Predict the 3D structure of the following.
Amino acid sequence: MPRAPKPLPLSTTQARQIWLHAQRLDVRAPFGEGAPAVAAATAHLGYVQIDTINVIERCHHHILFSRIPSYRRADLRQAQSVDKSVFEYWTHALSYVPSSDFRFFLSAMREHRREGHRWFASVKPADTRKVMRLLRAGPLTIRDIEDDVLVEKEHLWQSRKPSKRALQLAFYTGAVTISERQGMLKTYELMNRHFGWDKLPRAASAREITAYLLDRALRSQGVVSLDSICHLDAPSKKPVARLIAARVRRGELVPVALEGAGKQEHWTSPAALEAGGEGISPDLVHILSPFDPLIIQRKRTNLIFGYNHLFEAYVPKAKRKLGYFALPVLVGDEIVAALDLKTDRQAKRLLMQKWTWVGQGKKTAGRKELKRKIEEELHRFAQFQLAD
């Protein structure tokens, strides 16, 4: 049996450049514009996380704006509701996912149908029958249901409305999908009717799902570890590890010894290694969401960028270091600042709550020019925030 190849040394600078290229944050407009750009960006990244916090624009819009400079909220609405090129489902969190990847989520939907979901164990058959009866007549929002008798919450995030719980369970089982969003108000629709299907696509096999997880991570991360591939998905680690070993034997993946990673194993593709030496313009500035794929895996971001992002929305004010909703600022291939911003929608202003220099941004030399670049991007960011 052939011996496993010795890992190639990889500096954090190389890893940053490979990851930024994989995230398409190394060029200004990698995906074009309009709804096709939304579909292309979502397909490349694999998913775009959704979140409810809106002190600035919600993260799904923010993540897309970071890669589509001309992005408008209507572009996502067009992709979801008209083109139907993206749909909502659970990855490590609720996310927009490419509709072309639907079959990779069918097994999770079937598992919910078989076993239910512990958050929705209180859903009664009568509640399910009620919402499905209403849905057969047409699309439905929770505001269309006015006769609910409110019940006590079983946990913090749960709704008191039985119909909402039933709709959420129907969503996880794949009986319905979210056909439209207005803010965070969801319109539910029968899955087959939304997509115009006579029947659901063929479900991916377990083997195909494992390959999908690995390929998605390689495409969007460039350099991967088991933790980064299977973020909050520990059961997938064993089959993914077996597939990685097989690909290493075939020469399709290369083990790398990432600077500072200790015993944690990493891999990349020969093509990514070959392209990884290209520099990134120091004039390229991105104000990122704390839920951006470059930031959401905090340990990975700290390892590769030397930046430990603090998400402090749920931290008492007196104990915050960066602020309630600080946004990391990427300049070239360095995270240099964290800006705590807030949108005053009535006054149509973007408010600076706190500016914190981090990493290379702490150095006095060149900081005036760095601040000028960030302020230019802040002007563009404010226009996006305040646009209709």
Summary: Residues 367-386 form the longest helix (20 residues).
